[in-house]
Specification:
Biased composition (Acidic residues): 199-208, 247-278
Region (Disordered): 152-278
Radius of gyration: 62 Å
Structural class: mainly alpha
Number of helices: 8
Order of helices and strands: HHHHHHHH
Distance between the termini: 100 Å
Strand content: under 5%
InterPro entries: PspA_VIPP1
Number of strands: 0
Protein name: Phage shock protein A (PspA) family protein
Shape: rod-shaped
Largest sheet: none
CATH topology of the largest domain: Helix Hairpins
Family: Belongs to the PspA/Vipp/IM30 family.
Length: 278
Amino acid sequence: MGILSRTSYVIRSKINLILNRAEDPTETLDYSYEQMRDELQDVKQGIADLTTQKKRLEIQKRRLEENVEKHNEQAREAVQQDRDDLARKALEKKKSKMNQIEDLESQIAELQNTQDQLVDKKDELQGRIEEFKTKKETMKARYEAAEASTRVSEAMSGVGDEMEDVGRAIERAEDRTEEMEARSQAMDELQDSGAFDDALSDEDEIDRELESGRTDREVDAELETLRAELGKGSAEDDGEAGAGADADVDVEAEPVPDEEVEAELEELREEEDADASK
């Protein structure tokens, strides 16, 4: 097989495959039925045309027969008048008309024979069409039932083209959902670990620890200042004072005047108000 032959064979096979996939049996059956009906109509039209032609020949035959009778009467009358010459002419015309009548009868017989054959074919074709119509409706019902059953089976098993698309859509949705859930959990973990704060700040870990130490020292210093203003002393002094009190119970602490206490409290309130206004 040559290259061109193989190419032609492959192309025809591809086209045939495409046509088979695109073909709807119900539409094909309906089209075939309409084609047969068109053929039947053509046969009926042919019979009608043939009958019309036959009728024309029969009319022509009747006219010739009338002429034959007329020439026969002319011949009789000519003989009665001793006009043999006219009688001969009338008989010659009669003979010519008789020959034409014979030809017409032969043609009419042939047309009648053809008409009878066409009528038989028409009846046979009409019977086949009625039979095909019954089979067509039966085949269409079977095909539609099989098609519906196939769609239901594909829907239940999930192997159809549409169900396959639905399955892929569900898989993509599940993958996307899992991805978003994982991303959400990762964002929560980063938020809890302070990674976002680190990303938004120029400070590194050492800077943050140093800042925390400075804050602690400042708080301790302010606490010592407050204790000193209130006459409480430092935390170490309180410890030593407590130990000394245990050693010498009879020593009494010198009372602080109320005016000094009130003055120190007023000064502390003013500092707090000043800090708050900042």
